[in-house]
Amino acid sequence: MNTEPTTIAAxxxxxxxxIAAAGRAHHRPSDAITLLAVSKGQPAAAIRDAYAAxxxxxxxxxxxxxxxxxxxxxxxxxEWHFIGRIQSNKTRQxxxxxxxxxxxxxxxxxxxxxxQRPDDRPPLNVCLQxxxxxxxxxxxxxxxxxxxLARAVAALPRLRLRGLAAIPEATTDxxxxxxxxxxxxQAGDRLAAGGxxxxxxxxxxxxxxxxxIAEGATIVRIGTAIFGPRx
Length: 231
Ligand SMILES: *Cc1c(COP(=O)(O)O)cnc(C)c1O
Hints:
By secondary structure, the protein is an alpha/beta fold. 40% of the residues lie in helices and 18% in strands. Helix 4 packs across helix 5.
């Protein structure tokens, strides 16, 4: 018999239980880990189903895809997170329509987001994406340059520096994955020791979120395990 849950609501229940269990196993308070439902490649109707099942935060990677869905769903009180690469000609729309941005890795982008954040909205929550040693080709600030970037971003008036994000290479090697998450956590600890407060570690996806929670994740970004395959 196939016991895989087939509805978004049923899969959400299971993911929430797995997050709670991983949190308990690592002595994390029950409210320490937030589930971000990654809805890129999913239709607006699927987001509506998840929202009806109690999911409030959604992550999108592509502005052109996200904007029409956000418009369709504007009757819902969704907290939108931008988790994709940020092109400088897209910062105004990102600053206008999102509550969080996870992939900031350059001061120039942060400055534009701060300048363009509308005055009638609270400061934009920002996580800095850090380049980890296992992924030299990807985006992210070098660990050595992180303190200076964090200090500069923390000083921008319309941004709120919340923490760090890791978007590591997909791998089934749990040790490598764990090492990457641990590096991010340690980078955050060093910032804190230098007087820059961070309360967010955005790390962990469908296949590795329990490992990320073991290493201190506070936001896990989960797509396919909730929604099924992307279109
Ligand atoms: C697509 C994506 C996710 C979700 O990946 P799944 O494997 O579907 O859980 C998480 N974070 C980022 C940055 C993504 O682009």
